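ok here's the first one, seq then struct tokens
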Amino acid sequence: MQSGVGRVFPAAVLHVRQAGTTIFERAYGYLDPQARRHPTRPASPFDLASLTKLFTATAFMALVEARRVALETPVAEVLPEFAGRRPIGPAEDPLAGITVPPDPQFAGQEVDAGTVTFWHLLTHTSGLAAWRSLYREEGGKGGKEGKEGEGVPLPHQVEAGVRVRRIAAIYEQYGFAYPPGERVVYSDLGFIVLGEAVARLAGMPLEACMRQAVLEPLGLRTTTYNPLVNGCSPTQIVPTELCAWRQRRCIGEVHDENSAGLGGVAGHAGLFSTAAEVATLGQLYLNGGIYNGTRLLRPETVAEMVRVQAGDDENPRGLGWLQRSASYSSSGHYFGPRSFGHTGFTGTSLWVDPDRQLVVALLTNRVYYGRDPEPIQDFRPRLHDAVVMRNS
């Protein structure tokens, strides 16, 4: 961890549990690395990025258990606006910012969106593109906003109507990238849709549903969307990138542009939390769906979520969760074959090894130094190897 400070990230917290007991928790670095002020603390809230997807999947599966929906339910039954036939067309590369043409194998085909099920969304096999610049959509058909340097609002200041119109772009403007079920393509758009479905099924905003279904039952008091308006001082929150779009460093506002453009509340990104509270979610799954006497999910539901559902040895997917791949895993070399986890773009990760009864939550702000993925991709497996070797 010390080797990563100042090179991979300026701030980090590592939290490790074994057999339900915290065996290691330590904070590293500074929230203000230039002035070496505000040392990182174990209670420092980090931007979770895509670890948010695990919370969204948990809320959705609670609705499945309540018989409000099924994995096989077409998405359009819950979100009728999702229905219709759409062409297979281009996507975008979120790092390079360039248009990605469709696979020639599928170019010119159409997709009936009514065939997409919630199982497709949870396994990243829906056919939806990995990424589109949703945050630049003004609404309607073709309108744009959010140009660099034009006073981009804080996420909680995004008007509700703008959020609705941006979501509508997924239904009305964007085509598919491939036919549903044909391949695994990790899709933020798919989890944005999943979050909207969770809110529709629960009959309340996603933020309220997440609190009621997941955060409060687990006793997660720090985990929240939009921490700046939910009791957190900006001096407590771990900063992320100096954003080219917003032309300011993100402190307490979600790093992901699409989540920011949707008001900071979305199914794919937006939650802030501490390493201990992220580890609690991992412990819930390690315990078969129960934590501190409260059962959120049945054991059979957990077993279904953490088994391989789609993909191949190099990209095995459960329901929301990622399993260990054959050649490379951010969990390193020594985690067991039944291990499951997830990573987040800001430099976060959660890995669970049932065979070792091990939960490892690593939160960093590696995007403080930019978006090059290589340093964190090299760091994560070395860190997890060190955890296992220390405790073997």
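and now the second one, same deal
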Amino acid sequence: MAMPERPNVIVIVSDTFRPDHLSVFGHGHAETPELDAFVRRSVTFDRATVLSFPTIPMRTDCFTGRVGVTRYPWRDLDRAAITLPGLLRQHGYVAQLIADTTHMLRAKFWEPFDYFHFLRGHEGDTPACRMNDPIKPVMSDRRKTRVETGNTGDRPVLCDLHAHTNFRQRYEDEAHCALLADASCRWIEDNYRGRPFLLWLDFFDVHEPWFPPEYLLRKYQPRYDGEPMVHPNYGSAEVYRPEELANLRARYACMCTLVSKHAGRVLRLVEDTGLVENTLVVFLSDHGTFLGEHGLTGKTLINQFENDVFPFHPEVSRVCWSMSLPESLGIPAQPDARMPHLVQPPDLMPTILDLCGIKPPAQAQIEGKSLVPLLRGETEAGPRPVAVTTSTTRTHRSKDLVYCRRPAATDGAWTLILREPPDPAPPLLYHTEEDPAHRRDLLAEHRDEARRLHGMMLDFLRAHEATPETLERLSREAVGLSVKSGKGAR
């Protein structure tokens, strides 16, 4: 039997999309019928988590198949790196990037592709000035929106810049996710009969600011006449009145619905053109965000005076990961399959290469694991025993990089979250299987579990070239796990 031609690959990324806002999972936060339908015909990894946080580090892990956070911070894509689009191009693929994630433009993520199309103007991206029109504030209480570190005066904030740049936007078809879907659908119509292709479609939605159409907002919050909560404050949720926090959550849900609708247009075209017969489609998100859970909003701490990392609870660390496998790959059909294994972004590159029948060169030094053996039922073991989530950043307290700041580790059953100075509190330990919302800290009762997970975390960081300073800073003694106490392991 002749081998089938290599499959096309479509990767759809939605920034900041929380898995618990896909209505197919029964949480009821948002209506997402198009993505629900996609999930029902796909394989979904329920315990997918971000490794290198946030936006650009996560995508670097995806593009290179390597663990970045122990080695470098948020930075431009290394021109010398061996990347997923670069390797596919070497094997006859046409590689196209379509995105409005402005950080990818600035960080040169377009360079490994044959072609790229960027939609400008999301968040604080300002492609053209309008000096004759003053920038008007959207939210009057600066405690309730994100104010960049150092902006201690009255300079415009991100939601002001977004509204000013996109001042003509009124209708749904002018929303960024709609325009990005337009460009993607046109591209598919122009290319569905040619060479095999990689289409990387990167929606910055559902990332804030949130300016949904009025009709949709009224669907999620019928009665609200207050100031629009279009951008969380990346701080304490205590500053919001209950109805304001509800407005913030409603706006986020609106954007989940819009991304579903317009990503759904792309997915429908994949079916209508017949591409579904030989096209691998992946839907991902890069991280989540707090919407009042744990007393926080936003995904990290940012205000006029400081920046730092929030604790990596599941609302931030869990990501969407569903894959629709075409029949041409010869993998037994697994509609609506739910996989409990710990998978992370470095696994994306080796998995796609494996499905495309491409062996990466040894010099790529890929550290992620192909998920194909799991998909084929050849193994029950997941790619890793522990999933670590962390960030490398410069806090306001340090001019130097702080590698692997406040990491979290989970084995699927238990989750350990480290807290570092200036927070004097000990680590947090949750039995995630029984307490997925992380409501009860069990460190006092199960310190041995915390020590076990901590050891696995350090082993992982050490194996991926964490600096001696990092390992010392996160040692058992430094994080408050040196003394055995409690009732022992559960």
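notes on #2: Residues 387-479 form a domain with the Arylsulfatase, C-terminal domain fold (CATH 3.30.1120.10). DSSP finds 14 helices and 18 strands in the chain.
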